[in-house]
Design brief:
heterodimer; B: alpha+beta; 21 strands; globular
């Protein structure tokens, strides 16, 4: 399952370059930082704040690519480039994928 | 970084094997005669191969408890290079020396394409080494990105500070010196563009710090805008670590060169640097001796040998020339492939009027280094290369010129022209080192010369006094 969520090549390379211990901490940081970004997406959507919405999506895209979470990155990118969404469907999909991603990352980071 | 004790000074490095207990060096398995000091020096460099070792430190190790002049070290370094190849020990101007394992690992056989990746010209390796331990600032509001970037840069040996928005980064830049800024674009408070604009508006404080923009913004528009605003480079996130290292090294190398030029200005006229606001054309008139050296017969060699070999030759040559300039307190003005020019300032330490003597000593040293270098080339079946040097003294104007985005250090004047023309004349026919009348007058009685002229220098219409430096006895 996790192979599809996280690109193993990207993740391995990250570990090789930055060190496995460091990457484990980085995953923890991501797990802490991502929920506020998700909350920001929802609040920006509710307020009709397109720029805030785009920025939060941009941050999530950037971080997911770092870990090789390409599915999550693709969802975030759609939101980033798609303008303020008409409904919360995209954000809901992102939240679901984020949960899967964080679980997979934690499993990979501390096997 | 808390490295595990000291790296061992013994071991095998490419073609070299160092037997610490027996105090012996093997090259390609064959024992090589090496003086005791030279061996100590090699061991010291190898044990510290992860960094540039300052001259003072090497002197302390090799001549413990003794007061020893730099040129003794120079002689030992030259002896080692004779054995190991010029690229094995890189000179980092103003910083010291570094043993380069990559160069040591390169086979000496010619035309080996496989060696291409490893055997970079020594001068590049040297500058690369000098960039370790730089002070970098990372500005990124995203914690994951920030931590990862800091980590990657720390693993390269740099000291890294960070800021989570543009304003905080600006404050740090104003309060402490940095060698390089890695800048994210989208940040709260002040974004990357805003910081770049501030940098242009406040050049005195910020201009000297090169900037690499890192962003995952898509499209070329943001890149174009950053470059317009004076950023050195642009890296897409997630940042590829190999690219990161290459770009950081390259930016630091340019910064290093600018700093060196600034240093030269300070040496030419203490106090002038503070006022030299980049962007404004500031300069000063000063007495200086200019030396121009050129590698001869390069055209013929370049046509007949693999390109990589030509680059290696240029790298080794430049390293040796930098060495000679550095050891006599000169400063490099320009490195242009097969030619370098250097200035020896009148306001150098000790009495005035020492510059011509220093330039002449540098020229002699260049000649000696080239003789060793050629002996090494001949031993490996390669053609020796020639050297032409011109030296001229007189008033020059030195300073910065350019725009807020790009500044260049310039040194102009009749002496600069004359040195170049003397070099051309030396390369054309006459002896290897030609000096002008003013330089000769300053060194009269200390060195012997043959009067060649008056000669009409290439590119000039009036005849001037030209003297050929006789080989030292």
């Amino acid at each position: 399952m996790s192979a599809a969520v996280i690109d193993p090549h990207t993740f391995d390379e990250l570990q090789a370059n930055a060190g496995a211990d460091f990457v484990a901490e980085l995953v923890d940081t991501f797990a802490e930082e991502a929920p506020p970004l998700l909350a920001e997406l929802r609040s920006a959507l509710a307020a009709g704040a397109a720029e805030r919405f785009r920025r939060a999506a941009h941050s999530l895209k950037s971080n997911s690519s770092t870990f090789g979470a390409h599915r999550l990155a693709a969802l975030a990118r759609e939101l980033e480039l798609g303008g303020l969404a008409a409904d919360a469907a995209g954000v809901d999909a992102l939240e679901a994928e984020l949960g899967i991603t964080v679980t997979a990352l934690k499993a990979l980071a501390r096997p | 970084m808390s490295a595990p004790a000291a790296s061992p000074a013994a071991g095998t490095f490419g073609r070299f094997a160092i037997l610490a207990a027996e105090r012996r060096l093997l090259v390609d398995g064959v024992p090589v005669a090496l003086g005791s000091r030279a061996f100590d020096l090699l061991a010291a460099l190898v044990a510290r191969r992860d960094r540039v070792v300052p001259k003072e430190e090497l002197i302390d190790v090799v001549w413990p408890g003794l007061v020893v002049e730099d040129n003794n070290l120079q002689v030992q370094i030259s002896a080692l290079r004779k054995v190991l190849g010029a690229q094995a020990i890189a000179t980092v101007p103003g910083r010291g020396y570094q043993f380069t394992v990559a160069a040591a690992a390169a086979p000496s056989t010619s035309g080996a394409v496989a060696a291409e990746a490893k055997a970079r010209p020594a001068v590049r390796a040297g500058h690369g080494a000098s960039q370790r331990g730089a002070r970098l600032l990372v500005a990124d509001d995203n914690k994951v990105n920030r931590l990862l970037l800091c980590r990657s840069l720390e693993l390269m040996g740099h000291t890294v500070a960070s800021a989570d928005n543009g304003r905080a980064a600006l404050e740090k830049l104003r309060s402490e010196p940095f060698d390089l800024l890695l800048l994210d674009l989208e940040m709260p408070e002040m974004d990357g563009f805003g910081l770049l604009e501030q940098r242009t508006a406040d050049p005195a404080a910020l201009h000297d710090v090169p900037v690499i923009v890192t962003s995952s913004l898509e499209g070329v528009a943001p890149i174009a805008r950053c470059i317009e605003l004076g950023a050195d480079d642009y890296l897409h996130k997630p940042v590829n670590p190999v690219l990161l290292k290459a770009r950081v090294d390259s930016s630091l190398e340019r910064k290093h060169l600018r700093d060196r030029q600034r240093e030269l200005l300070a040496r030419l006229a203490p106090g002038a640097v503070g006022e030299a606001a980049p962007g404004a054309a500031t300069g000063l008139r000063t007495e200086a001796t200019i030396l121009v050296a050129r590698l001869r017969e390069l055209d013929a060699l370049a046509a007949s040998q693999p390109a990589q070999e030509t680059l290696e030759l240029l790298g080794s040559w430049t390293t040796l020339m930098l060495d000679a300039v550095e050891s006599q307190g000169g400063a490099v003005l320009q490195i242009a492939g097969d030619a370098i020019s250097a200035a020896f300032g009148a306001a150098m330490p000790s009495a005035s009027g020492v510059a011509p003597g220093a330039a002449v000593r540098a020229a002699r040293e260049m000649g000696e280094l080239m003789a060793q270098f050629n002996a090494e080339r001949i031993a490996t079946g390669k053609a020796p290369v020639g050297l032409a040097i011109g030296i001229a003294s007189g008033e020059v104007v030195a300073g910065y010129t350019g725009t807020p985005q790009r500044t260049a250090y310039v040194c102009v004047g009749a002496a600069v022209e004359r040195a170049a023309r003397l070099e051309a004349l030396a390369g054309g026919s006459a002896g290897a080192v030609l000096i002008d009348g003013a330089t000769r007058a300053a060194v009269a009685g200390r060195v012997s010369t043959d009067t060649v002229s008056p000669a009409v220098l290439p590119g000039s219409s009036t005849a001037v006094a030209v003297h050929a430096l006789k080989p030292a006895t």
